[in-house]
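Data availability (excerpt). The following record was deposited with the supplementary files.
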Amino acid sequence: MENGNSVFSRFEVKKYILKKNLKKDLPSSIVVFLVALPLCLGIALASGAPLFAGIITGVIGGIIVSSISGSQLSVSGPAAGLTAIVLGAISQLGTYETFLLAVVIAGVIQLILGILKGGMIGNYFPSSVIEGMLAAIGLTLILKQFPHALGIHSDFFGDESFFQGDHENTFSAITAAMSHFGLAAIVISGLSIAVLVLWPKFKKLSTVPAPLVVVALGVGLAIAFKGTNYALDGAQMVAIPVVNGFSEFIGLFTTPDFSQISNGKVWMVAGTIAIVASLETLLSLEAIDKIDPIKRVSPTNRELIAQGAGNIVSGLVGGLPMTSVIVRSSANVNAGGRTKMSAVFHGCWLLLSLLFIPGLINMIPLACLAAILLVTGYKLTRIALFKHMYHKGWDQFIPFVVTIIAVLLTDLLKGVAIGMLLSIFFLLRTNMRNPFFYRIKEEGDKKNLRITLAEEVSFLNKAAIQVVLTELPKETNVTIDGTNSRYIDPDVLETIFNYKHNAYTKGIIVDLVNIKDHYSVPKLNNKIIEEINN
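Predicted structure:
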């Protein structure tokens, strides 16, 4: 009886938790849906793919990838960072059907990477670089969405690259927008930002998500401006494809051309997509874990498997390659999402909107959606983050700032790569300064010097140890103590043994204490290995 009661109580607890999370996940999913919709369309347009491809990719990313993924807050879909690759690949391969085959193969490669534990690379991104990437994304959202908030639509909604397809760049686009703004868009975006900031402060009203109020307000104002000199044109509105019936919906799907399986270009494109999409996903995953209020850690290998499955399905039905996307995921966090059900529901809303209410969706102004992203960007790049990184020291603050600048002036992957290189420089610098401990003991006219090696001595310590040994004065007794060392890199061992062999030429006597000829890499216990693999 007690056992039955405990089972019942556990069931009740799970039911309560699910119900409690749904109160946050459902409203959050609507916000993510509203943000994702124009992004999916804009990225498809910029990629030279059918608009339907962008929507169906978002649907698959929401429903399939989120269901398999171990991340609770990550949202997947078509990524702006892949637009140039996709556009070039479609042109290079000749037909969209051949490109879809490359997407399927890319998904298979990601599956294999996940099974081979390739996701572990995500654990090696420095915190300063990830924080810098988040701040850069926030600034990018502010800079890129500002023209849309003013009513300028020359660049596709959701572009993140510095150099735009309209021959402008991030800064010149803002200058142009200042002289060609639309009154209706400014009124809509301005009031939308005010609602987003003030609405949550009223507890009785905050049960209704502020972004939903913003969309309703935007639709109402767009209707009010109709028939005036300030009316919004079609390019300033969401433009979802209108599907007349289920048969027409089925006709939108496209299948890959498997006859091109032996085409070498297909495999080159597939490999490129798999690598770039995997890196963007791992970066996004690490960044979202940083801003998760509950501080959960997402399993990276499982995420690669989920992304691989998503890209296989997407390629089979005519979609675009996808990644975990920071913008949508950040919107999910800021809207109060708690579990993966928010991302799953957002995929359902994308599908239902395409089938049943395309006309209503097309009444939403881009200006109010730009306002949502502007507020999201501000939260990602808050002043407190800069102060926090500054107080952590220059070795953290400089890579943080350089990553921000590099991402703004190039793109996500190039910017992060530059930040990583700078972080590695500071890592090497730190290891050069603190590879071991030593003390000098005077005995008469002779100097006795003891070098006590650290617990882990990697190849990064080799240069510093060489410098110290080279600069030791003549006629010195040197003891190199490896008692505390669990591991000494073979290159360091070779340096130490070579020095002992040749030191007599300077009258230096070298004594090695507890230093083995060979060290094995310390093994992790089974529990830690299991956690990493998952």
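Summary of structural features: The radius of gyration is 28 Å.
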